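## retry 2 of 3
previous attempt timed out at serialization; input unchanged, resubmitting
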Amino acid sequence: MKNKIVRRILAVVAVVFVIFLGADTVYRSGPHRFGDRTWGSKAHRTDFTVYREAGLAVWDGTDPTDAHNARNWLFMSMPVVAIAMAPFAMVNVFWGSLIWYGLSVLMVWGSARLSARLARQAIPACAVSEYWLTVLAIVLTLPITMSAIVRGQPSLLVMFLVTGSVACYLKKRDWLAGFCLMAAITIKAFPALLMGYFLLKGRFRMVIATAVGSVVLLLIAPSVVFGVRENARFLYKWTERMVLNAYSYEAKQGTFRDTFDGQITRNQSVRASVTRLFLWGEDTAANANTGGRVAFAINLALLAATAWVCRKGKGMPGQPLTALQLCGVIPLMLFVSPLTWNHYFAVLAIPLTVGAALALTKTDTRVQRLFQWGVGGWLVLSVFSLTTRFVRTFDALLVAALLLWGAFIFLLARDGKGSTPSLV
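## retry succeeded, writing output
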């Protein structure tokens, strides 16, 4: 009876919170005009309008890769994403941002449900129900997802697609998993690192499924809309701006080069963090290059450590070891990417939920405490990082993600000689 009352109270709180958050989100996308009245932010603060402009370019027959909103924020995804956003250009910004908000809430809820279900399967010894693991997943990711929602970020779609891809793979639905993974890559490129795990494990069906998805999403679908030549030109421009700029210290393509500026504290990648450290005393190209080389060495070490602990097993779907290894690989996507904005960390939904399940599992006190520190540290640091600028300056989100990653690496290195670690 008490459990039912608590659930009802949580449901009421959630509904009220969603309503107020929705009002704030739509307000930020303003100004909105209703006849003679104007409501909303005077200078809108949302990325949704960037993607809506890209969708509008599809209808107008112009170049979506040059799309930008009134604040000159730029469209940085692949051409097929502009096609997907075209329906939002059919309605005004008010209704479009409201619909996008509703979809974003559903993405958060769906990702939490999938993560909780996966955690229950990966950690059978965990006595916490799927309902409460879902609540934990929402709470642990809330500092990130709330920020992403009000800013109209597509990172929540990336979170949902990556979570769905992993869930489908573990249920032996390789073709759907591959398509979801490729769809996530078209929005933000960093999920492509997951392919390294599947290649390492020889899961070629998953690799082929993702490759087929890339043909459909990168070549066939956009070519039908834009034409083969125009699509090829758009893809080349995206590669030049988002790949060459990302790994070059020389200024190219103007504002797109500024996107990868390591001095912007919202960029919490290893490279950006180390670069800021080397530029602390003197902002010079030599220091930036030195920082880049040090960051490369650190990322190489992180990759090597993850590959070493993932050598065990064959990556078979349905095995707890596979889920735990994927929990170690997912944070790595954020470390090695040259661009890791705060809202990208929403993709940690699965590792955080599985980590919470391990923190609540009493079969091994040492591991339980390790994950209590890892998950608890994440929650504290993520809250302070997004509310206190001083804390963010010291890369709190990156440190929190490294703590979580380290907990999984320790567990995998200590255990898991077979297909099932003794803990689970």
